[in-house]
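Page header: ASSEMBLY MODEL / two components / 772 residues total.
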Amino acid sequence: MIAGIRLGRATRLTTMLLAVIALCAGLVIGSGALSASASTAPAPTPTPTEEGDFTSTYTIGGILRDGDNLVAGAEVTVEGDGFTETATSDDSGRWSVAVPGRGEYTVTLDVETLPDGVELRDPDRASATVGSDEWLTNTITRSFPLGVDTRQTTGFFEQFLQRFVAGLNFGLLIALAAIGITLIFGTTGLNNFAHGEMVTFGAIVAWVTSVLLGVNIFVAMIVALILGGVFGYLNDWLLWKPLRRKGVKLVQAMIVSIGLAIALRYLYLFFIGGDTKTMNVGLSDAVVLGPVRITTGSIISMALSVIVLVLVGLFLTRTRIGKATRAVSDNPSLAAASGIDVDRIIRIVWVLAGSLAALAGVMLALYRQVSWDMGFQVLLLMFAAVTLGGLGSAYGALVGSIVVGLFVELSTLFIPPDLKYAAALVVLIVVLLVRPQGILGRKERVG
Amino acid sequence: MDWGNIFGNAVGEIISPTTAAYALAAIGLGIHFGYTGLLNFGQAAFLLIGAYGFAIPTLAGAPLIVAVLCAIVCSVIFAFILGIPTLRLRADYLAIVTIASAEVVRYIVTTTGLTDFTGAANGLSGFKGTFAAVNPIPEGTYGFGPFTYNEYDWWVRIVGWVLVALASVLVFLLMRSPWGRVVKGIREDEDAVRSLGKNVYSYKMQALILGGGLGSVAGIIFILPRAVQPANYTTGLTFFIWTIMLLGGAATIFGPIVGSMIFWVVLSLTQGILYGAIESGALSFLSTTQAGQIRFILVGVALMLLVIFRPQGIFGNKKELSFSV
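Prediction written out in full:
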């Protein structure tokens, strides 16, 4: 471990401010180099103003996807005001048509051009309209919900197994990141809302090294693991340690983490753009194991998750530092009194959390794709997992994550897939109603 | 760079209906967090429920009053659903549950299964008729300089800001009343209030309903100049309302209003200046989309600095801070 550099409180806060300023300056300078890779895809506009976006072209576009698979080669025609143009969806399922102005258009998906086995979930909705009063921004999105061709569905039991394996994979992946959340909460009391951005960080590092630089994915994983640890360390050193010194209250610190999450998220958007990046690293071959179809990427991801989780478990129970971590988690004052360097333990926890989150990010990138807000999308599921298992308990986080992962995937057997995250969050609320301390939590943790 | 236009747009934001809607939502959040100490991270859900609760009945042919009442009743029901499991728990559980519920309602209105009611991802439009019909202002364009709008735009602004004023007076009177003293007591020390025989749970629930109701009215104002789009109600909206509330001061009367004005004027100014600089070639390496993103990076950094260095906001009193958890 790097020895903590002793700096005065004022110096630390100045360092932090300088870091923020340097970050902003760096981003303005760096954007020139990266703007070439920035996409022209429809930019997410978080709060459309009345005037809308200021780009000069008007486009109608969307992404065609069947579940998690992107649909390429399908044709979409946009007609209106004497204008007709057809776009074909690309490898990332994306299609877009530049239109002459803010008029009324009809958007029609040519069902014949969809791949075999993919069809509209609702056959009556092959076309959609765009009204002239909808042009609040210069980009309008139209989606065509696709579903599996119902004539080819397999039996319920096969589907159940398929979803079960997918859920287990997703749950293990959430567990990697959630253990970091729960360790940070246990040792410092902080609910870190910027944890999703640590996950995105790992995914972006892996995407840059494996896709842009062409390095082997396993090397990229190790790079992400190391840089993630460095990122966690910097988080603690530049921000959280000075704030602990300053005596900032926990709720205050939680809102600071929200601010950090917003800043980092838009920083990622600034650099990599708003479109989804595909991770074509040769791990998407399907393997058939009995009734279950699974990609090699998923098998590797599950195996790695289990190995890493076992290692983390051994670290926490068998090593001196791990025992010290649990001691700090139980009672920081008592731990400090018995000679444990609490600040050092917290630093180690941040490095560990950063690495695990980055690893989860790489696996999430293999499971879905890479996008600027991917970590934030799963942040709530991680919180749900941690709360379900009992805040502050590492084993609880594991159990909670697997419950959430299985629930997300298995719920799609009964409800529309676009509600699967909602279902997991509803379960969180119901569990809090009947067992507020979570599955493995201790009762005194509840206020 | 057209400075006149840039400043004109920025000044126009001071009285825009969006500013009024955010101010109203921040007043509601102020009741939750500033006065009662509830960590509500789901204010966006109340705006969403106000918006859909108003738009769906209106599109089904309901009169204005019925639609507004429907929006408010829906938000009260939602506050109960939110409050019953969580108000007995520690503050950070409420934070996680409110943020989760806000996402749940957003997933629900976006699901394709409900397209006939909510328009799914495309949202709803064409609900402005009943509100425009009660507009007493004759047709035409009024005002001067940057404040030139047609009759509908003035009507939305007037109604929006009258509601903001009424809400501020309501909060001012409530917080001077015995009810206000009890909720402020809950913020400071729940157990002390409980020992006086007050039902803390019930007071918290009332505060949640009141602030949520203001949030749903803000939701109606927010959609009157635009269409309902589910993508507007992400957690980002909640965090912007938090930034506005903390900027002005959480437990203050004018804080949310001034906070909202500053927030939108600064956003409009930075957008105008960045876009102007890009057009004039001074920042040619940036794209306009990236310039828009820089503003939100700044919002995040501003929120962090604000909470660290001036948690009481512009108007706030450091003694009245609900950061004691």
